[in-house]
Amino acid sequence: MALNDIRDKFDLPILAVNGLLCWQCYEAPQGGEKLAYCNRCKRAVLDCQRRNWDDEHRYLCGVFKSVNEGEQHELALSKVILSDNYNEDILVNQERAMSYRPFCATCLRTLFDEPHQTFQELDKCEYCHLTFFCSDTCRAATLEKHRQERCWELQQFGALECGKIQHIKEGGFLPIQTSTDFPRTAPLLLQELHSWKDYFLRCETANPFTSEVDNLESDRLIDLAPRTRWVAESLTLATEPSSFVLTTLAGLERSVPKLRRRKMLTLHVLGGVDVRFANSLPLSEDIFHFLPKLNRLIIGFVGSEFVDKNQDLLEIPCCTSCNNAGRQLQHFHSPLPYDQFHKTDPRATKHPPDMVINFNSFPADFETSMLQDLEKALDLEKPALFTSCTEGEALYESDFFDELNAEFIVRPERNRWKSLVPEMDSIDKKCNIFYTNGWWYIIKGRSGKKSGTSPRKYTKWGEDS
Questions:
Q1: With contact defined as beta carbons under 8 Å apart, do 42 and 19 qualify?
Q2: DSSP element (H, E) containing 146
Q3: Which of 2, 84, 372, 440 sits 20 to 30 Å CA-CA off 341?
């Protein structure tokens, strides 16, 4: 694979931002030095340095230097956008590097925080390589706590980021998708499955080595034998797209009566199209495979940036067995907010929802752009499934819905079918690890009174988060 191909298919890795991978080929730098002017970009060999400079870094090197000297990265980015050198593809690939710099885990200093810093390089944790210390004093103060609480997740993060890169270099695509092998003759409830490994063993048999993996949720990838590690990495990466489908199916099981007898279902997904969910859309056929009586599934994306040129339903190809059985998997898109969609789009009444879904909702939107949409979802008296990346977000959102007197079918809890791929918030200096669809809850209509246990006091997002 050409060097530029990997950069087209995978944004600049966090490992590269931290100086552990070359910014051009995504290989280990083998002792390469950072570019002296910006002290950020690291290249593996001279050829990588020349190509990366010509392709993109010559446009951004000065921006990195300005950020190092204290300029807010948003302001630095705006200068690039307004310049003659603006290239959106380059900017997207480099933005996480502008917003994040390696920092000391104890005192939060970076290499650029003091004009006459006494250290030239941050000393990294020898296990995860993603936690840094500026001095022996800071290392001694934090290292033990780091090893107990975060090191393992950061090791997983690094191993899987390398796994994604290697998968692409070997000719693969992301996301890695696996699906159930064929429609079942009798319904299978997700409630009968206890873990991701249980799902892979009972529902898809494409990988004969799945049984060698002990526990996907707790296995340390770096401790596994090479073949078992390869299997575990592939299955773990496959949980990311599958998480959207299985979370949806689990939500239907918890909230839709007589689900196993249903012949048609319609889902409304709020907030447009999460790229990861859009990529996993073909996997929605798995809902047919779990519910053999189901003949038609319609998924509507409301608030989508993609606008249909017509109002027709779009068909998604199914497997041979489903096609022969006459099953239809269809979807539509509307750019309208959900409240306006119900007022003006005929598809709202033509295809009313059996369940409303908002994946990885962002709490700040609840107070602003989505407020009317959430009110509409409650007024429909239909189940509404929400997922969040963190517990704090889920609890905040539940407080918000308590204020709206929402009836909870499921209070916020850990989602068994969350993605097992750790992600890092590169803008937050704490660099917390989170998981797609990590927490979930389900509401339906209004109760007329506070539901469930006594809620925490509602505050605006960010005040106590």
A1: yes
A2: helix 136-149
A3: 440
CA end-to-end span of the chain, whole Å? Answer: 44
Contacts of 127 (CB under 8 A, 6+ apart): 147, 151, 155
329 in helix, strand or coil? strand
Residue 299: its pLDDT value, please?
A: 92
Give the whole-number percent of the chain exceeding pLDDT 70: 77
Angle between helices 151-169 and 226-255 (to 10 degrees): 100
pLDDT at 453: 45
Query: Contact 297/332 with Cβ under 8 angstroms?
Result: no
Q: Using CA atoms in the order 161, 165, 168, 170, what is the torsion angle rounded to 10 degrees?
A: -120
Q: How confident is the model at residue 386 (pLDDT cuts 50, 70, 90)?
A: very high
The full DSSP string for 212-239 is G---TTT--GGGS-HHHHHHHHHHHHHH
Confidence of residue 442 (pLDDT cuts 50, 70, 90): very high
User: Is the separation of the CB atoms in 52 and 44 below 8 Å?
Assistant: no
Total length of the chain: 465
Contact 100, 57 (CB under 8 A): no
Residue 351: pLDDT above 50? yes
pLDDT in tens, 161-217: 998 888 888 876 666 666 676 677 777 788 888 899 888 888 766 566 777 787 888
Q: Kind and range of the H or E element at 290?
A: helix 286-290
Strand segments, DSSP code E, in 353-438 are: 355-358, 383-388, 406-414, 422-424, 433-435
Q: The tokens of 449 are what?
A: 């009174």
Q: Is the pLDDT of residue 104 over 70?
A: yes
Q: Per-residue confidence at 234, pLDDT binned at 50, 70, 90?
A: confident
Give dist(CA 315, CA 331) in Å, integer. Answer: 7
Q: Which residue matches tokens 């917003």?
A: 99
Which of these ranges, 111-125, 280-294, 313-327, has the smallest mean pLDDT? 111-125
Q: Where would I find the H helices in 267-405?
A: 275-279, 286-290, 320-324, 338-344, 347-350, 363-366, 371-379, 391-403
CA-CA distances (angstroms) from residue 324 to 70, 178, 179, 262, 465? 63, 21, 18, 19, 51
